């Protein structure tokens, strides 16, 4: 049966291979069978300071990357979070249902706030807004990487809490986390997540990196001192990470990769991985350029937002009725 699927990505810098493998690839897969809502979550991005020109550029860029990666706006709703104001309104309501202690336990908040003198309150209540994003469409499935699992658990708790307090209303959503590739690691440190906010660009592959940069970054990626291409995340985190990337971008299994490179050293494996990535990203980059120069994006985003607003407005009206807000007229 067709399910409702929702997910979002922040426009807070260049998207990485981690975003692609952990999230976007699954968006493309799920849209074939399900009713999908894919947002660019600009309201989340501003929980840390954003330069206005960069925010605008990154917002368009993420939307264009969605389409370039294969999201089809004829069957999926693609839009900006801020174009559907009901997200912010339900976000506030969710904030009132969330306990301070729940937010204090969020590892993403701890990571992003640690060592900072001043932390915006938006960063703290970020997970309540994320819960609203999901619940406002009564989404069944939320495709995300592993780092979002804790936020999903809070969302499930908030849905249950609302239903318990005000009567059965929200669908309790399930995370959809890939088995391989749910946590793509940094190229310079196999114990850290690949992240667009890492100040060292050599630590990640950006989806818009030119082919030669991709090849160079892979050839320079840290590997352990052994020589065998085997999947063993506990003892060989770096090579295991590169194998996951290889598997996700080539369609081969980890075992097939291990067999292919048996008895060989890392050099040949890395060289081939560079080519696998170029073959994956070059067509995407070409489509991206076409979409950016076509001028079609603003209509696509307007249509996506209009459809999303229709659904969101209905849910919000139901929420308000359940909670006892006085109706207008
Ligand atoms: P964001 O923008 O940090 O990341 C977008 C998606 O990419 C996944 N991801 C990764 N997956 C595997 N390996 C990695 N190294 C990696 N880095 C990032 C993330 O898990 C995510 O799925 N809070 C969300 C945005 C959001 C959202 C939502 C998601 C807002 N509202 C509602 C789902 C539903 C975030 O910061 O993602």
Write a structural description.
Belongs to the class-I aminoacyl-tRNA synthetase family. It comes from Paenibacillus jilunlii. Pfam families: tRNA-synt_1b. Keywords: Aminoacyl-tRNA synthetase, ATP-binding, Cytoplasm, Ligase, Nucleotide-binding, Protein biosynthesis. This is Tryptophan--tRNA ligase. The chain is mainly alpha-helical and about 325 residues long. The protein folds into 2 domains: about 5-175 and about 295-325, Rossmann fold (3-Layer(aba) Sandwich); about 200-290, Tyrosyl-Transfer RNA Synthetase (Orthogonal Bundle), CATH 1.10.240.10. The protein has 13 helices and 7 strands. The protein has helices spanning about 15-30, 40-45, 50-70, 85-95, 100-105, 105-115, 120-135, 150-165, 210-220, 235-250, 255-260, 265-295, 295-325, and strands spanning about 5-10, 35-40, 75-80, 140-145, 175, 185, 190-195. Helix 7 packs across helix 8. The chain starts with a strand and ends in a 6-residue tail after the last helix. The model has no long low-confidence stretch (mean pLDDT about 95). Bound molecules: tryptophanyl-5'AMP.
Overall CATH class of the largest domain: Alpha Beta
Fraction of residues in H or I helices: 40-55%
List each distinct ligand once. Answer: tryptophanyl-5'AMP
Major sheet characteristics: 3 strands, parallel
How many β-strand runs? 7
Tally of DSSP helical segments: 13
Provide the domain count. Answer: 2
Strand order of the largest sheet: 1-2-3
Question: Radius of gyration from the CA trace?
Answer: 21 Å
Question: CATH topology of the largest domain, which one?
Answer: Rossmann fold
CATH superfamily of the largest domain: HUPs
Termini separation comes to: 39 Å
> What best-fitting shape do the alpha-carbon axes yield?
globular
Structural class: mainly alpha
Strand percent estimate: 5-15%
CATH architecture type of the largest domain: 3-Layer(aba) Sandwich
Low-confidence stretches: none
Q: List the helices and strands in order.
A: EHEHHEHHHHEHEEEHHHHH
Overall pLDDT score: 96
InterPro entries: aa-tRNA-synth_I_CS, aa-tRNA-synth_Ic, Rossmann-like_a/b/a_fold, Trp-tRNA-ligase, Trp-tRNA-ligase_bac-type, Trp-tRNA_synthetase
EC number: 6.1.1.2
Motif ('KMSKS' region): 193-197
Keywords: Aminoacyl-tRNA synthetase, ATP-binding, Cytoplasm, Ligase, Nucleotide-binding, Protein biosynthesis
């Amino acid at each position: 049966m067709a399910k409702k699927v929702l997910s979002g990505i922040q426009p807070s810098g260049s998207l990485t291979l981690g975003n692609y493998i952990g999230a976007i690839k699954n968006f493309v897969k799920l849209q074939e069978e399900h009713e999908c809502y894919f947002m660019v979550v600009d309201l989340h991005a501003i929980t840390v300071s954003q330069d206005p020109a960069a925010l605008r550029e990154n917002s368009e860029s993420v939307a264009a990357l969605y389409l370039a990666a294969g999201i089809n706006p004829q069957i999926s709703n693609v839009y900006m979070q801020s174009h559907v104001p009901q997200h912010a309104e339900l976000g506030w309501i969710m904030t009132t249902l969330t306990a301070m202690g729940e937010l204090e336990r969020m590892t993403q908040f701890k990571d992003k706030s640690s060592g900072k003198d001043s932390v915006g309150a938006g960063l703290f209540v970020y997970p309540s807004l994320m819960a609203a994003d999901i619940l406002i469409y009564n989404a069944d499935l939320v495709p995300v990487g592993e780092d979002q699992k804790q936020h999903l658990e809070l969302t499930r708790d908030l849905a249950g809490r609302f239903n318990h307090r005000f009567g059965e209303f929200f669908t309790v959503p399930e995370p959809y986390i890939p088995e391989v590739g749910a946590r793509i690691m940094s190229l310079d440190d196999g114990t850290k997540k690949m992240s667009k906010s890492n100040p060292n660009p050599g630590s990640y592959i950006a989806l818009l990196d030119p082919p030669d940069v991709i090849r160079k970054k892979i050839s320079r990626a840290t590997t352990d001192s052994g020589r065998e291409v085997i999947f063993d995340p506990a003892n060989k985190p770096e090579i295991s990470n590169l194998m996951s990337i290889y598997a996700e971008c080539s369609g081969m299994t980890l075992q097939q990769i291990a067999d292919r490179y048996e008895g060989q050293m890392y050099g040949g494996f890395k060289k081939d991985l560079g080519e696998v990535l170029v073959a994956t990203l070059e067509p995407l980059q070409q489509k991206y350029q076409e979409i950016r120069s076509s001028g079609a994006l603003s209509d696509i985003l307007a249509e996506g937002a209009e459809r999303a607003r229709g659904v969101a407005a209905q849910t919000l009206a139901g929420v308000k009725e359940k909670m006892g807000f006085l109706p207008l007229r």
